[in-house]
Amino acid sequence: MTAYWINFFTRISDPDRVAAYAALAGPAMRAAGGRFLARGEPAHTFEGGTSCRTTLIEFDSVEAAVAAYHSPDYQEALRVLGDAAERDLRIIPAVDPAH
Question: Where is the signal peptide (predicted)?
Answer without folding.
Answer: none
